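> call design_seq(struct)
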């Protein structure tokens, strides 16, 4: 019997997803142990690394299979206990914060000069990021007890992190962040078991680095007046990304997750795809032309702006220009 390598990872993933809740119900696995399955997510990164190191060797599937098993354990644990029972830290057994139930915290404002770095690290919460005219940033919102995020700022940076609570680690709330359009900004965004939505028209972005772990994010960068480089890493999560009509470089990695990317028609696009039999993409359907590991738009090189990306998908998917768009 010949095994279809392109479907092997998906088969293992679904087997593990189904086996975990069955084992819990049969008493073979402890529900409290399964509830901590999300903590295995670093194995997805290890599997991705193995996939790159072992590419084009006889054991190239090892990395992908590790990703498939890990993602299956995480998803199976979620199905076995439900999100409200998923354990996201020491003694913290729920991630069900709702903004309507929270208490507002004091608005904080400031500036970070002619250029700056904004770092947002969200655990178990939601954040909305918008751009505003001028040079000032602001942070508002709610949390379960009215505690604001931990904010560190100086003339060149702004850092937001979920406040640390004794015994339960970091826990976010519902944040509303406004970033200034005048300074050049680098944005580092990490979303862990939460959700983020950003719309940044008029901003000059030297770079955007987004990591989504067991969460979701929507980044509308289509209206940015400049974007230097984009780095996106999705682990058991989902990212929708809209890029501007400008020259951009970067990389995308979907590990047991999904990335949707929207690119303007007038921009030349070239994507170098890592060889991974366990991932999927729609590049051919989207009109790109394949040459080995490279997919390019027709007539690449003739346009005024070029987007050049490297991409990989380990038991994940990358979809170019989906029918419903990337910013809804």
């Amino acid at each position: 019997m010949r095994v279809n390598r392109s479907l092997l990872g998906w088969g293992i993933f679904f087997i593990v997803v189904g086996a975990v809740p069955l084992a819990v119900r049969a008493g073979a696995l402890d529900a409290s142990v399964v509830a901590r399955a999300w903590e295995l997510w670093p194995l997805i990164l290890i599997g991705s690394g193995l996939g790159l190191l072992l590419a084009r060797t006889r054991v190239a599937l090892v990395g992908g299979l590790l990703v498939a098993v890990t993602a299956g354990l995480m998803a199976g644990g979620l199905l076995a206990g439900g999100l409200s029972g998923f354990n996201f830290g020491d003694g913290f057994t729920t991630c069900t914060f709702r903004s309507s139930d929270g208490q507002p915290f004091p608005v904080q404002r400031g500036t970070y000069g002619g250029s700056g770095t904004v770092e947002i690290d969200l655990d178990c919460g939601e954040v909305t990021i918008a751009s505003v005219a001028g040079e000032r940033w602001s942070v508002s919102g709610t949390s379960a007890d009215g505690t604001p995020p931990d904010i560190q700022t100086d003339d060149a940076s702004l850092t937001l992190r979920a406040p640390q609570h004794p015994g339960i680690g970091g826990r976010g709330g519902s944040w509303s962040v406004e970033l200034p359009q005048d300074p050049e900004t680098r944005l580092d965004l990490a979303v862990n078991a939460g959700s983020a939505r950003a719309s940044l028209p008029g901003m000059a972005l030297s770079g955007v680095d987004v990591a989504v772990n067991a969460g979701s994010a929507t980044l509308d960068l289509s209206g940015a007046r400049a974007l230097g480089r984009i780095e996106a890493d999705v682990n058991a999560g989902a990212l929708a990304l809209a890029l501007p009509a400008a020259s951009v470089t970067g990389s995308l990695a979907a590990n047991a997750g999904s990335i949707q990317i929207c690119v303007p028609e007038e921009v030349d696009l070239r994507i170098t795809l890592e060889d991974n039999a366990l991932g999927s993409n729609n590049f051919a359907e989207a009109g790109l032309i394949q040459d080995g590991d490279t997919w390019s738009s027709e007539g690449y090189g003739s346009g005024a702006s070029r987007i050049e990306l490297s991409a990989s998908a380990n038991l994940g998917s990358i979809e170019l220009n989906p029918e419903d768009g990337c910013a809804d």
